[in-house]
């Protein structure tokens, strides 16, 4: 499964991994994965727990650097630059490639401060009020919170908190948005709102989403990659993966025979 | 069979007398344990207050010690204690917090870090008199600070640093990792993450540890006797390099006198010490609440 599986696209991919492996100590969590992700697409990573999909996602903004004992081999190129080249600063990478986590993790500050934090630490020089409003509007949260921006973010519901986290990620104007099971802690209505949002956001962003929920992958994504035990088994257009997978294991997983 | 009838009732004993009895016994035990502490405190306070309050006066607070109990006052020791307390706080707080930050947020998880960690835990258990000997050798003699306020403050700093570091680490560790990850994912540097997210959230816990540590420092006698804080000081320290005495030493000196009048003014001295402690804790609690509210 080491061959490069290109997703058909006329333009150069935004993010591309080449023979990417990740080790936690002696355990190889991601095994020589090569995958390309195109601009303004939603790409879903699916697979059973422990298959390496979240680990692979964390390579795209070098969050694995923060895991003690994690080691990365191979390359991740973002617009032609290898993110793991020695002269690349992971801090700069994370401004360009944003992330939303599994559980909503707003800072224990006001709604406004949650969104303003990223721009502020990155030396943003524009109009902060305007940026906060734009980010909240992009995350479809503005109408619900515009009259209480100074309230604690912790007073919001779980779904609102997660949309706040999306607004926070968008505030530093990234090109790629990584989402690590963003709805697994949310109820179906909050999940639907996030999924609608993903559909809106792909006009401006490239989105990579890890999900346990195969219906979600089928609903929101344009491309799907199936990982199993650290290997990329198959990737391609979501329609094709779900209706006519090339690999036996992909079919077994999506039809619910294991995982 | 009483209560709710139904499946399995005969095989379970939900209304067993024993388990309710155990529950009540545990509750009574905890209440009793709490009362032991409260009772001791009340007895202590009543004893000290009845003995000391009649001798409390502006004159007592505003006079220096004397051979005559009725003329003796606490001024030198009060100001000495305040000097030492403030200096110790100013020196130990940044040192303790910085060390805790380094150990939790920066240090690699190596054997060196583990060794340092173990040593700090051990140092917290070293008897205070040993710090007194160290202070005498290093600050008083080697650095030629003499029997000064600064030598005392530095000695007490060494004494309370381990406790402050450990409390600071606990507070920093209690900040959820998801907050750090969120900050890093927004392109924050380590310092920005520590300064703007971790520290504000850890500050209430850090301040609680500081209160406890400084309360201990202000009550210490032995190490300060070692470094030569003197019993009879007829002046208020003008600066960190002056000689000094502190409240516990003054109280100790008075109590060891044979005349009963001195025992009474010692009780008055204890009240002054308690007031210093309580007002200091109050400041720290107000600070802590301000931080807790913000986050």
Structural notes for this entry:
The complex is a heterodimer of chains A (259) and B (295). Chain A has 259 residues and is of the alpha/beta class. Chain A contains ten helices and ten strands. In chain A, the strands form two sheets. Chain A has a six-stranded mixed sheet with strand order 6-7-8-3-9-10, with helices on both faces. Chain A is globular and about 55 Å long. By secondary structure, chain B is mainly alpha-helical. Helix content of chain B is 73%, strand content 0%. Chain B is built from eleven helices and no strands. The longest helix of chain B has 36 residues, at 17-52. Chain B is globular. Chain A binds chain B through residues 61, 63, 66, 68, 91-92, 94-95, 98-99, 101, 103, 105-109, 117-118, 121-122, 165, 168-169, 172, and chain B through 109, 176, 178-189, 192, 196-197, 201, 295.
Question: Main attributes?
Answer:
heterodimer; A: 259 residues; alpha/beta; 6-stranded mixed sheet; 10 strands; globular; B: 295 residues; mainly alpha; 11 helices; 73% helix
Order of helices and strands of chain B: HHHHHHHHHHH
Estimated helix fraction of chain A:
25-40%
What integer value in Å does the Rg of chain A equal?
Answer: 18 Å
Shape by Cα distribution of chain B: globular
Strand order, main sheet of chain A: write it out.
6-7-8-3-9-10
Cα end-to-end separation of chain A: 19 Å
- Tally of DSSP helical segments of chain B: 11
- Give a count of the beta strands of chain A, DSSP E runs of length 2 or more: 10
Shape of chain A: globular
Largest sheet of chain A: 6 strands, mixed
Rg of chain B, rounded, reads 25 Å
> Are there runs of chain A of 5+ residues with pLDDT below 50, and where?
none
Instruction: Sketch the major β-sheet of chain B.
Output: none
DSSP strand content of chain B: under 5%
């Amino acid at each position: 499964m080491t061959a490069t599986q290109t997703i058909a696209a006329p333009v150069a991919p935004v993010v591309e991994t080449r023979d990417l492996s990740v080790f936690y100590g002696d355990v190889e969590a991601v095994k020589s994965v090569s995958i390309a992700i195109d601009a303004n697409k939603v790409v879903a990573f699916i697979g059973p727990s422990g298959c390496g999909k979240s680990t692979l996602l964390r390579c795209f903004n070098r969050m694995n650097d923060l895991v003690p004992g994690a080691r990365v081999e191979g390359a991740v190129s973002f617009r032609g630059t290898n993110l793991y080249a020695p002269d690349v600063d992971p801090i700069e990478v994370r401004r360009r490639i944003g992330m939303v986590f599994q559980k909503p993790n707003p800072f224990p500050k006001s709604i406004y401060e949650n969104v303003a934090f990223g721009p502020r630490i990155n030396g943003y020089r524009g109009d902060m009020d305007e940026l906060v409003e734009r980010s909240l509007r992009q995350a479809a949260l503005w109408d619900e919170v515009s009259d209480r921006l100074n309230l604690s973010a912790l007073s919001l519901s779980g779904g609102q908190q997660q949309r706040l986290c999306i607004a926070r990620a968008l505030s530093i104007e990234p090109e790629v948005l990584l989402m690590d099971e963003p709805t697994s802690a949310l109820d179906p209505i909050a999940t639907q709102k996030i999924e609608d949002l993903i559909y809106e956001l792909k006009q401006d962003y490239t989105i990579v989403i890890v999900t346990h929920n195969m219906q979600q992958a089928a609903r929101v994504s344009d491309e799907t990659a199936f990982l199993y035990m650290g290997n990329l088994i198959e990737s391609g257009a979501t329609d094709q993966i779900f209706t006519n997978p090339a690999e036996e294991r992909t079919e077994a997983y999506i039809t619910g025979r294991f995982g | 069979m009483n209560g709710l009838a139904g499946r399995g009732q005969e095989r379970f004993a939900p209304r067993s007398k024993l388990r309710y009895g155990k529950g009540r016994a545990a509750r009574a035990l905890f209440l009793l344990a709490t009362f032991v502490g409260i009772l001791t405190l009340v007895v202590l306070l009543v004893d000290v207050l009845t003995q000391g309050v009649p001798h409390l006066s502006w004159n007592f607070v505003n006079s220096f010690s004397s051979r005559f109990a009725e003329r003796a006052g606490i001024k030198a020791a009060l100001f000495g204690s305040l000097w030492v307390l403030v200096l110790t706080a100013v020196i130990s707080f940044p040192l303790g917090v910085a060390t805790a930050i380094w150990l939790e947020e920066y240090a690699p998880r190596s054997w060196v870090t583990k060794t340092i960690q173990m040593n700090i835990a051990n140092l917290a258990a070293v008897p205070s008199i040993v710090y007194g000997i160290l202070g005498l050798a290093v600050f008083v003699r080697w650095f030629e600070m003499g029997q000064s306020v600064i030598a005392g403050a530095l000695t007490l700093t060494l004494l309370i640093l381990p406790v402050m570091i450990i409390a600071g680490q606990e507070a920093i560790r209690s900040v959820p990792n998801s907050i750090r990850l969120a900050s890093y994912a927004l392109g924050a540097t380590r310092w920005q993450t520590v300064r703007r997210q971790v520290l504000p959230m850890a500050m209430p816990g850090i301040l609680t540890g500081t209160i406890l540590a400084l309360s201990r420092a202000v009550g210490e006698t032995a190490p300060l006797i070692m470094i030569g804080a003197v019993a009879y000081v007829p002046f208020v320290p003008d600066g960190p390099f002056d000689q000094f005495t502190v409240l516990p030493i003054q109280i100790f000196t008075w109590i060891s006198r044979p005349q009963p009048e001195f025992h009474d003014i010692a009780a008055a001295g204890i009240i002054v010490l308690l007031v210093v402690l309580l007002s200091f804790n109050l400041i720290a609690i107000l600070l802590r609440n301000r931080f807790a509210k913000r986050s």
